[in-house]
Structures
1.
Amino acid sequence: MNSEHLSKRLHTVVSFIPKGSVVADIGSDHAYLPCYAVNKGIAKSAIAGEVSDGPFTSAQKQVKSEGLEKAISVRKGDGLEVLAYPGEATCITIAGMGGTLISSILEKGKAKLEGVETLVLQPNIQANNIREWLLQNEWQLTQEEILEEDGKIYEVLVAKRGNPEEPYSAAREMDILFGPFLMKQRNDVFRKKWTHERKHWLQIIEQLNKSGNQESLQKKEQLERYIQYAEEVLR
Ligand code: SAM
């Protein structure tokens, strides 16, 4: 992968960036995504945010090697703190992390989200945490995609300002877990993911059965519910 040929995963993330956006890519590593988005004329300009020294230096080098220093500002910092003021970016991308970390970055940086129009989020796991966060923070989940690359399955979530309740049915817990849009499509990748998760949950339940404390009991009840849901969506 490089900034000319993105992975299928990052390509899917880019495909949801509205044309003409000022993009802030948080956790940008090599800055492949902002370089690609600017080179293709999708982003007007971009900010590449990185918290770690190594990836920050890689991002700086990449931007320099492509002569994009005027269009892409590489900044070191934690999450959205790299944005100078609310609304500096119109679209935020956060990819390649767990859903819990992505949600905590959004939560911590709430004040900087003012003026942001689009969030494109690609959790490697626990997309449900992001859906919960969006729902509680007045962001409307508008699109979702699930894809497989090199044997791994990824979800991409897009959110805009709007009615956070809009995509959800009365079966809220199920929608949050599987994704309201993905659940409607139920494509082969979706089926593969949840067939695997169901098996994994059954294994965890076996372990929990051996422990028997109150916490395990609650966890077991939740997993049993999830297994029922999975059997329903896979039917
Ligand atoms: N976004 C790229 C992608 O999807 O290919 C890189 C993903 S890499 C697995 C995650 C990157 O996020 C790492 O470079 C890490 O240093 C960075 N990161 C983790 N937490 C961060 C935070 N709170 N703020 C900024 N960057 C963060």
2.
Amino acid sequence: MSILYDEATRIFHLQTEHSSYQMQVGPYGSLLHLYYGPRVEDGLGHLYTPKERGFSGNPADTGNDRTFSFDTAPQEYSCFGGADYRTACLEAVSAQGAGDLDLRYASHRTGKGKPALPGLPHVYFGEDEGETLVVILRDEARQVEVELFYSVLPGYDAITRHAVIHNRGREALFLERALSCQLDMAGMGYDLITFWGKHCLERQPARTPVRHGKITAESVRGTSSHQQNPFVILCEQGTGEEQGECWGLSFAYSGNFLAGAEVDQLGNTRVFMGIHPQGFRWQVKGGGAFVTPEVILCHSSQGLGGLSRQYHRLLRERLCRGEYKLARRPILINNWEATYFDFTGEKLLKIAEEAASLGVEMLVMDDGWFGARKDDYRGLGDWVVNEAKLGMTLDQLVKGINALGLKFGIWFEPEMVNEDSDLYRAHPDWCFRTPGRAPGRSRNQLVLDMGRAEVRDYVFDAMSAVLNSAHVEYVKWDMNRHLANVWSAALPPERQGEAYHRYVLGVYELMERFVTAFPHILLEGCSGGGGRFDAGILYYSPQIWCSDNTDAVDRIRIQYGTSFGYPISAVGSHVSAVPNHQTGRVTPLSLRGDVAFCGTFGYELDVSKLSEGEKAEIREQTAFYKKHYFTINQGDYYRLTDPGISQPYAAWQVVNREKGSALLFYARLSAQGNEAGVRLKLQGLVPEKRYHIHGTGLTLTGNTLMAAGLEMPFFQGDNQSIVWEIEEV
Ligand code: GLA
């Protein structure tokens, strides 16, 4: 049993293998949050002590009791307009303009397994793997009812949460904010870790002590964005990589989001996550309901590394879907950085022929194969193969690639349109634009209103026609700008506040149709690199292009930050040419390979321009990756150092599930005269087992490797790296 309810104390106790989550039906039917942390067995009702506080008002039914206030009570789902002045989950205005809500416990139910969230990405698990609790809160006066869903997955130490807001009245209800969850944590001895970024430098951890007031991570860009990621960690202030308490909140959503932590007047911390209220106003008709996206919660007492490994396994095994979820993904070569728009079918065949001899398994034809797309000013939306440019049909090209022993993949940017396109000329109203104003461009393109069924139908049909015309085994689904001037020609004025969320729902609907119609195609998400790298997209595509920055040194930092919340199997990473196209930096092929190994490995360069020596090295790389694929992609990942910008070296490690083999990656980024030695302690091994470290002549116990560690070799020059294969003997 993972969900316990004590009738006498009215305490709900959600238990995973190592964590407990408790809430209680408290005074006046309030739903109090009691605890989320290491597993305990007792009920924790003693942790809540009501007390009168000045300027924290009391609901009417408390009579002369001035000790209960929503302003000071730790809650599960707070609302605006009563006397809770902290960040609220829910704000809803009635047809009369009334904006206050007062939610009290009404009932609850439990069930085996986890119900699906139709139309929204979500963690899934079987009836025998866990249970779901639904607590129903009701505002009698306003006829609003909220169902709070808690799905408990004990074996993964995870709890998922979302809310369904019902309008039980007859008249419309306008949601001004509908967050997915909050956690009212006791005290304020925490740090909040958020992940900021920009195009070409995504997901950089920023650790901030929480303080009176708020710290937030948010996006109003219409997508989850490069700039902030919808994954945050709350941790105790002393928490490190391998020790300490921490809690993760991962939003299975790819649009505008708000996440943060607020410390209230009494020094308690409210953490919250959900759809960003800015630009959001959702009308729920009488009898209707609104479903918030899901937040995936994990707790770990094993530090940030432990928390990351929990998320890695959970997202990989219970969020990602499809044939490639756990299967080995092909090593690909993508022509983007090799050719940009300047290619023909012949040129691609030449690249493929060379790549085949190097152990590469798939060629991906990137942007530029359709319509009049000879540069990024035109063609988006016209998903018709440009046979004149290719010099052949798609089928002929793919057959040629297949004959070389390679699979074939193709690039689309389904959500976009250029003004210079047949699609735009036929349907100028299909993009977002506000009345009376020409829409702003970004990368010369406009955004299609994916909330509209006819737009999605067009895109689906156009994509399907291409995919059905040849043996395509992979699709890269790109999205190269953020939303602006969001106004939908298909929505009435009172529903314009729904356009952002309807866009995301539309994208999900289209992606679902795509994965259903083409179950054998491997889908890779992308948004100018890692601009939509979130748990929502991973429900549809098991991998996402991590960054448009392929520079190995920058990538170490990008992949480091990404690893906090996302598994290696999700991280698209390729070896590219030097000088690197984004930074101009020249790094050895070995470092580029060692960094790209920690992801869905591939190449993004013109292999026909490589020397024989480089080709030999690439043959070794592809063989190495195939050999170690499952250790890397399905093993446990350990961050051994923080490769912050001023750090001279970086190290990370993977250990397979059986703990019989491991890889230690060490990159010496900047050389120093009279360099000091670097000693690294390994992790995740079995103390009693003996391991051989290939290339060193050493055989040592796991205990020695973890307690005393290994001394790294000295290198000459910047950006040198080594991978040590460690195997049980
Ligand atoms: C985006 C992607 C790149 C490439 C280009 C093509 O920037 O992230 O990998 O596909 O678009 O235009």
